[in-house]
Amino acid sequence: MLLFIRLTWKWLRRGFKAAAACGIVGIIVVLGILAYAITLGPPSLSTSQNTLFYQADGGVIEGHDVGEDRYWISIDEMPEEVINATLAIEDHRFYSHFGFDIKRIGSAVLTDLKAMEMVEGASTITQQYARNLYLTHEKTWTRKIKEAFFAIRLEIFYEKDEILEGYLNTIYYGHGAYGIESASRYFFNKNSDELTLSEATMLAGIPKGPSYYSPLADEDNAETRQERILTRMNDLKYITNSEKNEAVTASLDYYDHSEENAKAVAPFFQDEVVNEAARLLDTDRESIESGGFRIYTTLNEEHQAKLERALTEEFNQETEIETAAVVMDNDTGAVTAMAGGRDYAKSPFNRVTQAKRMVGSAIKPFLYYTALKNNYTPLTMLESKPTSFEIEEGKIYSPSNYNNYYADQEITMAQALALSDNIYAVQTNVDLGPEKLVDTLREFGFDGNLPAVPSLALGTASISLYDMVDGYSRLISGSKNVQKHTITKITDHRDHTLYEYEPVSNEDKDNKPIDKEAAFSITQMMTGIFDPALNGYTSVTGSSIADELTRMYGGKSGTTDFDSWMIGFSPQYVMGVWTGYDDNRKITKARDHQYSKEVWANSMEQIHEPLAISAFTPPPGLKGVYINPASGKLSGPACPKERLVYMSKDDIPKETCEGEEDSDIEEIEKELQEDPWYKSVVDWFW
């Protein structure tokens, strides 16, 4: 027993000494940190949080939702309701701590350790202010340590009221509003000292997540958070029960910004820029919008204006049909213009990037690219007639052509693409095996659900317009290195480069490159949708707009019961247009199917007006030859129609179309030699 007591006392003394040593070391470290913080002097309270977007020519893009709205008011001018609501939900021990809430930190550390990642924060108002002034919003331990150090410096050199005043004047409330005064004017069109308790508590809940808690973005989430704030204020005795109940039930009247939004430059494009920047910097939208970044984009303001003008001219206010359009540089994938709908103020839903719709025949160029890589040529002949295909488990699939028109004879691939013959497409997909088309689509960057079935040849997969135009740009350029993007460079407000666009090589030994010869052959065949020489049992699909075009274009339309597509290109730019109804109702009017083509033609003609005429340049392995579209043989003097196609020298036909007539004469002569009936006529005459 005595030995046990001695050993216990020995270890206790050692423990006390170790604890004392640790305490002394800790005190020295803390004093050292404080001394270092003091020697650095007071940190600057100046802030530069406005994120600016620049268009391709370097000019600043006028923002619809990006921080330009900022007012500074003193804490004495701020209503008590705003201060109390903010303290209640963000940091109710603000006036009693030294920049850190130890209790909240302990709870957050335990939660983070359990999850083995940063999932819960315990930042005080001082820490949040420090982060907004000097740091990024990334969730890392390094950033938290820096945040703590800046918070110490703020607490040493500034009064609590100064810190709270700075915080409330710089915190981001979404929609481009920084600070409580800006937020009050944006949401309620009044000065902050006029806010009611209900309005103040609604605003106090927004900074935690502006895109989630803004009443203009999600009123249900905003009201739930507002009620939580009022309950918290009531618990802390800031307000009475009756005041809480009155504020919860009060009706709020938000300011209508529709006229201001209508003046914004490329609002759908700017939304995509924010989303792309968030992905590139691995952060959220709020951090991008409030981070003081300089984002250099690919926007061509002239292209954007011409696209919007075309939309305005084409659509009248009576129709409810919606649209989406995007213009992209063929060589780089840079997006030069984008419209995600007819009216951003009425619906900010971006139908270019967010909507996935059945693409119809717009998928056929990728099918025929697959075919060219599997021993087909632009002159391969298949029958165009009503056909039923047996698919899995004995089921029968019977596709049909538009309006049930058929050639009832063999036609070439070049003509099948120009006329958008469905039978030819399905027959090709079945002959190749649908898995090969799926593989091709994956090679061109398409993901999502791509069912390997015969009907995939007719575009039964749902794909976004953004991805379709991206795929076309790769086909036209013949390179997987072309990738859609809206951003060329991102810097912080001190001009430190955080990101710069560089084409990523996707063509290595593990990722087969695009076959440039097959890609160019398809690109050139797609110019046929505007060429009447390819008219057959029906007109080429671009005939309705061919007279509006003044230069060489290629393209492909796509039609389903619910969607209308037009994706077309010049040697410089590719543009895609979709029209349809958001509620997926059927398109019943022929005029509604024409919108996409008209918008495309109008926009592309305006965009190319100042540009020099240019041509598609074939790769060395292909040769251009004129063929007779009906027979698929070489054109000659006696052929009524001819069409230029590009193909491998080995695949060029040897016969000309008039060769059929010559062979008939030769056969008659042979018959005469075998049965010289003319001799009997001569004998009779004599």
From TrEMBL:
One of its GO terms (molecular function) is glycosyltransferase activity. The chain crosses the membrane at residues 20-38. Signal peptide: none annotated. Pfam families: Transgly, Transpeptidase. Its main location: membrane. Keywords: Carboxypeptidase, Cell membrane, Cell shape, Cell wall biogenesis/degradation, Glycosyltransferase, Hydrolase, Membrane, Multifunctional enzyme, Peptidoglycan synthesis, Protease, Transferase, Transmembrane, Transmembrane helix. This is Transglycosylase domain-containing protein.
